[in-house]
Amino acid sequence: MTQGDEKVSREQYRLRTYGGPQGRPLQPCIPSDPVSVTGAAPGCTLSTDRAIIQFDADAFYAQVEENRNPRLKGVPLAVTQKYLVVTCNQAARRLGVTKLQGVTEAKLQVPSLVLVNGEDLTPYRQASKSIFSVLARFGRAERLGMDEVFVDVTAGVQERLQKGFLCSTYNGHIHTAEMALKQETKHRPMDLRAAKTFGVPAPEAESPFSSTPSASWEASLKIASHIAAEARAAVKAETGFRTSAGISCSKMLAKLVSGMHKPDDQTVILPSHAPAFVATLPVRAIPGIGWKMDQELSALGITSTGDLRNIPLAALTQRFGERNAKYMYYACRGEDTTPVVQSGAPKSITVEDSFKSCTTFPSALHVLQILAPDLIARLHEDHQEHTRWPSTMTLKWRQKKQGWSRSSASIPMPAQWSTSKEQQAEAIVQASLSILRKNLAQPFSLTLLNIGATSFLASVPAQRIVPKALRSFLKAGQGSSRHKSTSSQQVAGHAGEDMRVAALVAIAARRDYGAHPKGQPLAKSHERALNETSRACVAASSGGSSLPDMQASPADDDGWGAESAARAAYTAPHMPMSSSTHAGSSSMLAGSGFLASSTSMGTEGLQSRANAALNAQQISHLSADVLQLPMQSRHDPLHSLSSSVAPPRHLLRQANMLEHNSSDLHGSLNRMSLPANQAQEQLTEQRQHEIQQCHQASRGVPEAAPVSNGDMGEEPICKGAWGAGRPSGPTSNVDSALVKLSKLQQASTSSCREAGTDREFVQGTVQSSAEPSDENAISAPLGAQGASCQSVVLSELERLERMKVSGQHQAAPQWVSQSPEDVSADMLLARKLQDEELRWHQMHSRVSAAQTLKRKLKKETTLDAFLKKPALGRK
DNA sequence: TGGCGCTAG
DNA sequence: CTTTCTAGCGCCA
């Protein structure tokens, strides 16, 4: 359904489905208020005094990515973490991609699938926040994860009622107990979807409720449904996100129906229908009843809420405790009185990473050294917003032998707010390590590490004497003290440079141990190649060519090609971007179609810097004042801003952009235009070169983590980055990044080279020897792809080395100096990659088809039996 | 309050 | 049961 005719056709659909002039009356049963249940649950009443809406952003991560890069709209898109598809957009779903599917499998099934790495949650957190702030205007709002929000709109409804505001109809779909449901995903009986049942009216006679004319809750819910529509429209207008909503008198009911008519639509469930509706569901569908409780209930022979209703409250209490029992007892009857609790600042902030195996303390240290700065950066972000600092730190870990349970230990937060970020991170690393040493003996086998901060206390208030724009400006100027410029170009350029260098470090760091916890690992090179070919597809499609979609089923009328690309372009929302943003990061990419996402990636950071730069003239006189702030201001976040270490948040946020830039513009081009054997030769050459480079680069790098401050006194220590304490004069980002990068490169290369002897991590990239031979057919190009990315990192390393020698810190990175000709050559390459991919998938098409078939068959067996209704009033 | 389990997206 | 990277709550000691 396209945007334009949405309103009209929805109304038509509603009339067709639920009646109207030609169908049955819009309000089939008119129960009393509160609803007294005369049917299955004698004496039970439903509370109808509240109006609650549950909002749910459709395919949230995918939508965020689509908004970041509008070219992705309409293209099958999957957001990945490690080797998994964590979510995918509608286009991908139609082609059979599912949540938590393996990346390899998904890509095999849908060759045109575009993969976007979603391991950095920053953009999602921000999007989530903006959605929440819109919805919170409509009433008390409670977040549930990143993409769901409950809003209690009772007050708003009352207000409108008092003003004499009345709605004659419900806005959106009305779900009744009689409507058929369908199962969307195999393992999730809690995701309810309405089956399309056009023109099958539910029989009024079946209603177990007394019919008294009109009820106050009806008027309320009608208004609530209109509020829901307004709120969704506001969200769409202000943030660009499509949402679905469920409207009812309780959180449970609202949640149960919110997804019924996904995407971008809303559903009302009348309390009069609730008990009968809930009775049709498996217990697992009740929010709050998870896998464990479901298992326990199953053991008792209880699988449906109907079964559950036969169990007396006392028996449930004995088995599940009073709280759970009560909730279950009432929930299965359609009643839920849990309040909507206003959400505020998060109560805990954690970072974690999983890996296949980590067996020694040095390797654990390695992980901690990546996680800790990440946590610190988030804590600083949090501090800016809430002026608080955690008093407790918790380390959690998961061991292979202990299955999925996690152990944990807490200590008073070792990082003090008054110290520098580097000191804070180091404190956390050391504390974490000592916790591990206390609790583990080598060799262990960790598969996950999590560092968390809790028990936040109000911190020293941030001094608000500095305008926000000035903060941004100073932030933009960080690390470039020797180039005191007020020109927007230069500032933006420097910001970009810092971020790119930082991102390189992040890529290298994560790649180093980002192995796969279990199952068939997806080689990094493989993964990267998949990403590249995907991007090539997008580039080609937005360049106007249409790619036949081999996997599209005949019924799928929305396969992608020129038409859908055009439509995507037409419906694309406009990302607010200043022209200087482009100037700073991606001018040469404009209009190339390639790197489409890089133009919109990291806009927050870049844009604030660019905007700040525009104000530079205006505020430059202020800056002098600020620089003379008394020492006490070291508690001000400003100090952390002037620290030269780039926040890890920026690192990962920029990772995708870098991958786009580096792999697309460099590696792929020269290799793919070579014959295969030449490419192979070049590959081995490259690898030898890399190893040499690593060795060279690693010489002279200090052993220990180079965070050392001779001065531990009261003076604020904010200038040091990773390279602080090294003897060679003032340190810069470039310098410290270089050190880090060298070390990381060395570590990863040596662990690859001397597999089995020195390695601390069991690398997940070793292909099983039992792989079918056709794996080999693709290994050459994929390997080459992977090598290219690494070589770009290495060449960047070289460049930095040269820069350090010559002192030309403002030299542009290689990939920014692409000429227009090069870009059009890249377009040609895109076509080539696309052809390559097509050929590859022709080889696999039969396998793929078989798998799809199997999937479809499986899909239709599991829950349908459960959900198929006894056709109450139907003949 | 810490540690763990369960639930959620 | 299963995986990601989170976040919140309740129970128990």
From TrEMBL:
Stretch list, region Disordered: 476-495, 515-561
GO MF annotation terms: damaged DNA binding; DNA-directed DNA polymerase activity
Ranges in coiled-coil conformation: none
Classification via Gene3D superfamilies: 3.30.70.270, 3.40.1170.60, 5' to 3' exonuclease, C-terminal subdomain, DNA polymerase, Y-family, little finger domain
Keywords in alphabetical order: DNA synthesis
Keyword Oxidoreductase: no
InterPro entries, A to Z: DNA/RNA_pol_sf (IPR043502), DNA_pol_Y-fam_lit_finger_sf (IPR036775), DNA_pol_Y-fam_little_finger (IPR017961), IMS_HHH_1 (IPR053848), Rev_trsase/Diguanyl_cyclase (IPR043128), UmuC (IPR001126)
Domain UmuC: 52-290
Pfam family, one: IMS_C
A Gene Ontology BP annotation from the UniProt entry: DNA repair
Signal peptide positions (record): none
Protein family membership: Belongs to the DNA polymerase type-Y family.
Protein name, entry field: UmuC domain-containing protein
Source organism per UniProt: Coccomyxa viridis
Organism lineage: Eukaryota, Viridiplantae, Chlorophyta, core chlorophytes, Trebouxiophyceae
